[in-house]
TrEMBL record:
Keywords: DNA-binding, Sigma factor, Transcription, Transcription regulation. GO terms for molecular function: DNA binding; sigma factor activity. SUPFAM superfamilies: Sigma2 domain of RNA polymerase sigma factors (SSF88946), Sigma3 and sigma4 domains of RNA polymerase sigma factors (SSF88659). This is RNA polymerase sigma-70 factor (Sigma-E family). Signal peptide: none annotated. PANTHER family: ECF RNA POLYMERASE SIGMA FACTOR SIGM, RNA POLYMERASE ECF-TYPE SIGMA FACTO. Residues 19-80 form the RNA polymerase sigma-70 region domain. CDD domains: Sigma70_r4 (cd06171). The lineage of its organism: Bacteria, Bacillati, Actinomycetota, Actinomycetes, Micromonosporales. Gene3D superfamilies: 1.10.1740.10, Winged helix-like DNA-binding domain superfamily/Winged helix DNA-binding domain (1.10.10.10). It comes from the Bacteria. NCBIfam families: SigE-fam_strep, sigma70-ECF. GO terms for biological process: DNA-templated transcription initiation.
Amino acid sequence: MKNERDEQFHQFVVSRRAALVRTATLLTAGDAHLAEDLVQSTLTKLYVAWPSFQRADNPDGYVRRTLVNALTDERRRWWRRSERPMAEVPDRAAAEHVNGDVSDGLRVALKELPPKMRAALVFRYFYDLDVADTADALGCSEGTVKSQTARALDRLRAVLGNNPSLATL
């Protein structure tokens, strides 16, 4: 039998999971499996801290910060550093290709960026957050967001060869 907390959390998951997966996919530069892992970690942390989440002044910021923290935690895992990605996993069906608003060229270029730079770009330009909200999500100063964003854009332009489609970034 579900209690009120479980029902509220269930409604949250139903309404927000797809958006969380999209954000996590962008943060991981298209790694759908890691994105799913991040969303699961984020939802687990949110469930445990549900009363705090409900009292938060900025629930969206709380979720973004939890997602970024899950990414940071994942990158620190010892086995993740020694894991070797493969184009095709033997004897398995091919993974679903994540469709989204990001071209393959941009996805490859994003993958070249360090996770914090990538996250700064995702929050600033894909989700149109201001500098303060991005800084809150990343747990850093506004100046750091500005410098990380500028450096990331420079690196993207270099990787993509000043592609005109980046003019919106």
